[in-house]
UniProtKB/TrEMBL annotation:
Name this polypeptide is given: pyridoxal 5'-phosphate synthase
All copies of domain Pyridoxamine 5'-phosphate oxidase N-terminal, residue ranges: 46-154
InterPro entries per the UniProt record, alphabetical: Pyridox_Oxase, Pyridox_Oxase_CS, Pyridox_Oxase_N, Pyridoxamine_oxidase_dimer_C, Split_barrel_FMN-bd
Domain Pyridoxine 5'-phosphate oxidase dimerisation C-terminal, chain residue ranges per copy: 188-234
Cofactor dependency: FMN
NCBIfam families membership: pdxH, PRK05679.1
One Pfam family it belongs to: PNPOx_N
Enzyme class: oxidoreductase
Keyword Flavoprotein among record annotations: yes
Native source species: Rhizopogon vesiculosus
Transmembrane regions listed in the UniProt entry: none
An individual GO BP term: pyridoxine biosynthetic process
Any GO MF annotation of the entry: pyridoxamine phosphate oxidase activity
EC number annotated for this UniProt entry: 1.4.3.5
């Protein structure tokens, strides 16, 4: 149970107490899968089956070339043999920072299960063919939105609506919103985070959490990466 309390004054907001985690399961290097990608697959399916709200939501952290960080929530879309995939506008702030500094951190937090997964790695863009295949699977409204939004740029009132109307007309979308052919923009696509470190966190009482970390072994084959697995102090 939570014993959270807040003390407020004119110059300070102080939080005391915290939620006590008490998960029944337990993770150690001896009972996790040898591959962090397979272990993530297991935990992601657990989250789906446990009716976690938005198990695909993840925090993405990037940094400029000079190391100034920024974070935002995005949607995880694919796990393949190389890593974790999300899609965005290639002119957005996140993409510009990934171009400057091709390192990223992901964080999944499944509060209902007291579980977290942290991922650190390098990034690469998806191929045009991969981008187009995924873009075609999106609802037509989000396809149009990709064209209409100059993501992360300053926009004045009503400009977005007028741009959306322009592309509705340009691509011949009918009133039903189900007809028309919306091509994949060249300025939109996917990024893949190729992990070099993955940590699985399980909440436990008294903040003595279970933490299991995978570190990629440098020089191991790209198609069959090898990992060292350690337990970390909470």
């Amino acid at each position: 149970m939570s014993s959270l309390s807040v003390e407020e004054s004119a110059d300070r907001l102080q939080v005391q107490g915290h939620l006590q985690y008490d998960t029944p399961d337990h993770i150690t290097p001896s009972n996790v899968h040898p591959s962090p990608l397979e272990q993530f697959h297991i935990w992601f399916n657990d989250a789906r089956n446990a009716s976690v709200r938005e198990p695909d939501a993840m925090s993405l952290s990037t940094a400029t070339a000079s190391g100034i960080p920024s974070s935002r929530m995005v949607l995880f879309k694919q796990l393949d043999k190389r890593g974790f995939v999300f899609y965005t506008n290639y002119t957005s702030r996140k993409s510009r920072e990934l171009e400057e500094n091709p390192q990223a951190a992901l964080l999944f937090f499944w509060r209902e299960m007291s579980r977290q997964v942290r991922v650190l790695g390098t990034v690469e863009k998806l191929s045009k063919e991969e981008n187009e295949e995924y873009f075609k699977s999106r609802p037509v409204g989000t396809q149009l939105g990709a064209w209409a939004s100059k993501q992360s740029s300053v926009v004045v009132e009503d400009v977005l609506a007028s741009r959306l109307a322009k592309f509705v007309e340009q691509f011949g979308i009918q009133a039903s919103g189900k007809d028309g052919d919306v091509p994949s923009p060249d300025f939109w696509g996917g990024w893949r985070v190729i992990p070099r470190e993955v940590e699985f966190w399980l909440g436990k009482p008294s903040r003595l959490h279970d933490r299991v970390r995978y570190l990629h072994i440098a020089g191991s084959p790209e198609d069959q990466p090898q990992w060292t697995i350690d337990r970390l102090s909470p």
